[in-house]
Amino acid sequence: MTATLPADPAPKAADERLLDASPLHRLLGRPELGSVIGAVAVFLFFAVLADSFLSSLDTVLYAASTIGIMAVPVALLMIGGEFDLSAGVLVTSAALTSTMVAYEMTANVWVGVFVSLLVTLAIGFFNGYMLVRTGLPSFIITLGTYLMLWGANIGITKRIQGTVSTKSISDMQGFESARVLFASSIDVGSFKVRVTILWWIGLVALATWILLRTRWGNWIFAVGGGKDAARAVGVPVQRTKIGLYLGVAVAAWISGQHLLFSFSGVVQSAEGRGLELHYIAAAVIGGCLLTGGYGSAIGAAIGALIFGMAKQGIVYAQWDSDWFWFFLGAMLLLATILNSWVRKRAEAAR
Asked: Is the pTM for the entire model greater than 0.85?
């Protein structure tokens, strides 16, 4: 009697998550690819048209860094599916708190800087807590915060100091050491490296490590892709969203201290309005989706670099500065279209 061997089972379909993607497919899947192409194009454009553009790259990087410090945490917040319209005036609030606390208490400047950190974190926590407790859109929550901070900045400053600008604290104890940390520069040959560039690079590295190497990074992508699904698999959605708003607050505190110590310890209380659009635009140009769940810190940094090159390039090319916003709007549209096209090509190639 001859035994019949069982037929070989049909081969299982390979899990697509375990398939090796080609370098080209991995490159097409990167969120910052479109912004890199845009950055190269803008650089070449102004390098040809503006004579002093290449010799003033330190100024270009400085302009980019002042946007980039805020664009990085704003990008993480957008990856998490939320917005913060109060980010621009929060920078001014941080600067005003530092200078008024130090001046009115006749205290060391560092006392004002420390109190400013606590106040700024409290405002960030307020945004996050109100978002998760009320369930209202972040647009509404942070728009309300924006208006309250704008009014409080002007009202409190006029009530305490009599004008819309603060008194100078440049002759107070601790000013010079704080200025070194937040508003100094280092000469490397003919190239001036502003300390904001170092803050910017540090924040990009930290945010990239969080997004790609930590559990927090997985949580941020998860809550941005779908908070209900994320909650179902155990992601602490509320804690993650509050943490993202605290991240924006810390960056606003750093930017606020730079604003304060760059101008001899004097701050205009009406500053900061509209800057939140700069931060959001840099994140979108860098590849972050408005719908959440997609983007990168490096992309936001490149978006800020494009912003800085356009802002300074128009000046060096001696164009009418009124055209800056037209140029920026055109770049925003082109970057968004390019990012969408690249993403669809990458998805179709899988």
From this structure: yes
User: How would you class 347 by CB atoms within 10 Å of its CB: exposed for 0-12, middle for 13-18, buried for 19 or more?
Assistant: exposed
Torsion sign over Cα 318, 324, 327, 332: positive
- The DSSP output letter for 64 is H
Q: What are the tens digits of pLDDT across the range 85-134?
A: 999 999 999 999 999 999 999 889 999 999 999 999 999 999 999 999 99
- Phi, psi at 192, each rounded to 5°: -100, 115
Q: Which of 322, 344, 340, 343 is nearest to 332 (CA)?
A: 340
Helix, strand or coil, per DSSP, at residue 336: helix
| Cβ burial, residue 269 (10 Å; 0-12/13-18/19+) | buried
Tokens of 200: 């910017």
Residue type at position 276: E
Those residues whose C-beta lies under 8 Å from the C-beta of residue 13, and which sit 6 or more positions away, are none
In 10 A of CB 247, how many CB atoms? 24
**Helices 33-49, 324-349: crossing angle, 10 deg rounding:** 140
User: Shortest CA distance to 300 belongs to which of 57, 81, 69, 41?
Assistant: 69
pLDDT at 14 over 60: no
Q: Enter the tokens of residue 191.
A: 């190239």
Determine contact, residues 81/292, Cβ cutoff 8 Å.
Answer: yes
Report the C-alpha gap between 165 and 52 in whole angstroms.
34
Residue 56: Cβ-neighbour burial (10 angstroms; 0-12, 13-18, 19+): middle
Residues 191-200 have pLDDT tens digits of: 889 999 999 9
* Residues 202, 199: Cα–Cα separation, whole Å: 5
Spatial contact of 245 and 131, defined as CB atoms under 8 Å apart: yes
Average pLDDT along the chain:
87
Beta strands in 166-259 (DSSP E): 185-188, 191-194
The alpha carbon of 213 is separated from its chain's Cα centroid by a whole number of angstroms, namely 19
